[in-house]
Design brief:
There is one protein chain. The strands form three sheets. Strands 2-3-1-4-5-6 form a six-stranded mixed beta sheet, with helices on both faces. The N terminus is likely disordered. The protein is an alpha/beta fold. Helix 5 packs parallel to helix 10. It has three domains: about 120 residues, K homology (KH) domain (GMP Synthetase, Chain A, domain 3), CATH 3.30.300; about 160 residues, Rossmann fold, CATH 3.40.50; about 170 residues, 3-Layer(aba) Sandwich (Rossmann fold). This is GTPase Der. Associates with the 50S ribosomal subunit. Pfam families: KH_dom-like, MMR_HSR1.
């Protein structure tokens, strides 16, 4: 981006900035506001790029146990966050961190060691490594050069070829010139040049990261936030903890038995995509396996099911979160809601088994919703019975409302008129003798709505929440999370 900013072509530097979601006239108005308030082009470019970038490309670091994956991840991200022990199997969860190299930002996904033909917890680890490969944009395959290629390494190679993802081969534990001969032997894996690296000491990691940047796309291939939406019917992920009635709900909206329903929790393992016509519109429903607590301690199939649920959520546009209204709202329910919010998806809360509630339970449920789900009070709510079909006709209007909010855009002129009135009526509290002020703002993108506010100083979290609440009151945004980022004007010396 900076290269474009300073390119100084014949059209002038301003033409080099990506307008993002803004039209030409709106962008010109926006830049005029920026100039009046003392922001330069680089400030604007950086803020719009960050807000409108969508998800970062993902790099998965995979390999068999104890080859130094977590040490390499710590080296890449420049800090000690991934757990490292001289014992195989320490990393069990799939964990991601943000990294930067040569001005490019990306996510690094640390994984547990991959083993073939394993059971129990080891199968869980293998499953999440497979999922990491499936969802990543590129892969670093780490091999212990002091041991050489093992049968397990060969099995990982077959998995990588099947996935057809760009692969950078890392020959780890090369601490000197004598170890480079061991690294060259890894040409036999057929993955191209082995990059000799000592993740412990940092040797060779720069050259390897240069190769990683060549393998990573500038942006992920599939994105709703800022890129081209995936084609076809609108995608709805049915998510919730086990045995809340997701499969029953899908069967009811389809008006036939499409999914196996069993009172035993966890019957559904993989997402089942179903094209269903409702109200003259075709929708793609994704029925997912339930999410449980402490998924890393489950057997492999259940663990893999939780990962598949996350994958379904990533591919969906709207999440219908099914909650068992006959039971207290649980930590798992709140965690699933948080997953959908963090994924930036439109959201509908569906309270199932409503027909089984007596007046007392309904009273306490309302109190629970206020206290446990207050942070998503903006989500449309439907009270349904997947068993009897009660109020099922309200589900599609709620989904359409959420999608409308998810796609809503506010013109820059209207937004700044609103912000001006808001700041005048409710200024930011004075802190340390200073009163920061919102100068102007723009909506950098939709799906979900993303706003960039330019301010004279730091805006406290409470004031940001206040601004979000007033944005919803003024413009709607029902059924969608809102992302607000703030760019503070830097102090600059006067130009002569």
């Amino acid at each position: 981006m900076n290269d474009q900013i300073h390119s100084g072509d014949e059209h002038g530097p301003e033409q080099a900035v990506d307008h993002g979601a803004l039209g030409d006239a709106e962008y010109a108005e926006f830049m005029e506001l920026a100039a009046q308030e003392g922001f330069d082009l680089e400030d604007i470019a950086g803020a719009l790029e960050e807000a409108n970038a969508g998800p970062l490309p993902v790099l998965a670091v995979v390999g068999r146990p104890n080859v130094g994956k977590s040490t390499l991840v710590n080296r890449i991200i420049g800090r000690r966050e991934a757990v490292v022990q001289d014992k195989p199997g320490v990393t069990r969860d799939r964990v991601s961190y943000e990294a930067e190299w040569a001005g490019r930002r990306f996510k690094v996904m640390d994984t547990g060691g991959w083993e073939q033909d394993v059971l129990g917890l080891d199968a869980s680890v293998a499953a999440q490594a497979e999922y990491a490969i499936e969802t990543a944009d590129a892969v670093v395959f780490v091999v212990d050069s002091t041991v050489g290629a093992t049968d397990t390494d060969e099995a990982v190679v077959r998995l990588l070829r099947k996935a057809k993802k760009p692969v950078v081969l890392c020959a780890n534990k090369v601490d000197g010139l004598s170890g480079e001969a061991d690294a060259t032997a890894l040409w036999s894996l057929g993955l191209g040049e082995p990059h000799p690296v000592s993740s412990l000491h940092g040797r060779g990691t720069g050259d390897m990261l240069d190769a990683v940047l060549e393998a990573l796309p500038e942006a992920p291939a599939q994105t709703f936030g800022s890129g081209t939406p995936l084609g076809g019917p609108r995608r709805i992920a049915l998510i919730g903890r086990p045995n809340v009635g997701k499969s029953s709900l899908l069967n009811k909206v389809a008006k036939e038995d499409r999914v196996v329903v069993n009172e035993l929790a966890g019957t559904t393992r993989d997402p089942v995509d179903e094209l269903i016509n409702l109200g003259g519109t075709t929708w793609k429903f994704i029925d997912t396996a339930g999410i449980r607590r402490r998924v890393h301690l489950q057997e492999g199939a259940d663990y893999y099911a939780s990962l598949r649920t996350a994958a379904a959520l990533e591919k969906a546009e709207v999440a219908v979160i099914l909650i068992d209204s006959s039971e207290s709202i649980s930590v798992q329910d709140q965690r699933i809601v948080t997953m959908a919010v963090e994924a930036g998806r439109a959201m509908v809360l569906a309270f199932n088994k409503w027909d089984t509630l007596d007046e007392e339970r309904r009273y306490y449920l309302e109190r629970e919703i206020e206290t446990e789900l207050g942070q998503v009070a903006w989500a449309p709510r439907v009270n349904v019975s997947a068993l009897t079909g009660r109020h099922m006709e309200k589900l599609v209007p709620a989904i359409e409302t959420a999608l409308d909010g998810w796609e809503t855009r506010v013109p820059t002129g209207r937004l700044n008129a609103f912000l001006g009135e808001l700041v005048a009526a409710h200024p930011h509290p004075v802190r340390g003798g200073k009163q920061p002020r919102i100068l102007f703002g723009t909506q950098a993108g939709a799906k979900p709505p993303r706003f960039v506010l330019f301010a004279s100083g730091f805006l406290e979290a409470g004031y940001r929440r206040f601004v979000e609440r007033r944005l919803r009151e003024e413009f709607g945004f029902e059924g969608t999370p809102i992302h607000i980022s703030v760019r503070v004007r830097e102090k600059r010396g006067r130009k002569k």
